[in-house]
């Protein structure tokens, strides 16, 4: 096959603002995890599919519960009307409220 560009889990993007390796960010309409640091306007590699560990807020998700991004942490809380959190995937393991991290499977879908 001569037209395949990538496996689909890794993208090369242009940073719209500074990005940092391992710190989730939104570029356009995609939620991604940068592999490298980059300043605004620079290219960077990012994953948007796969299982990742993120910092978690005080929610207590069950296994395979929908995972949301509140702008700084993952949560099982969808937010409130007008201030909804971004749906990003599912929790791969249950977590209790005082856990500081949680594992999330990103399906690589556009919200």
Could you describe the 3D structure shown?
The protein has no helices and 11 strands. The chain has strands at residues 10-14, 25-27, 30-34, 43-47, 49-55, 66-69, 74-75, 79-80, 83-84, 86-91, 101-107. The chain is globular, with a radius of gyration of 15 Å.
Q: Write down the Rg.
A: 15 Å
Instruction: Determine the N-to-C terminus distance.
Output: 30 Å
User: What is the N-to-C order of secondary-structure elements (H for helix, E for strand)?
Assistant: EEEEEEEEEEE
- Give the rounded overall mean pLDDT: 92
Beta strands, count: 11
Strand order of the largest sheet: 5-11-10-6-7
Write a compact overview of the structure shown.
This protein is 0% helix and 43% strand. The protein is mainly beta and 111 residues long. The protein has a five-stranded antiparallel beta sheet, with no helix packed on it. A four-stranded antiparallel beta sheet has the order 1-4-3-2, with no helix packed on it. Strands 8-9 form a two-stranded antiparallel sheet.
């Amino acid at each position: 096959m001569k037209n395949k560009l990538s496996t689909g889990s890794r993208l090369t993007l242009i940073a719209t603002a500074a990005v940092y390796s391992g710190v989730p960010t939104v570029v356009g309409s995609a939620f991604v995890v940068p592999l490298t640091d980059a300043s605004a306007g620079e290219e960077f590699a990012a994953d948007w599919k796969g299982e990742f560990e993120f910092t978690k807020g005080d929610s207590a998700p069950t296994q395979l519960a929908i995972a949301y991004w509140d702008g700084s942490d993952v949560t099982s809380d969808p937010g409130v009307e007008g201030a909804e959190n971004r749906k990003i995937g599912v929790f791969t393991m249950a977590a209790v409220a005082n856990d500081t991290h949680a594992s999330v499977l990103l399906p690589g879908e556009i919200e």
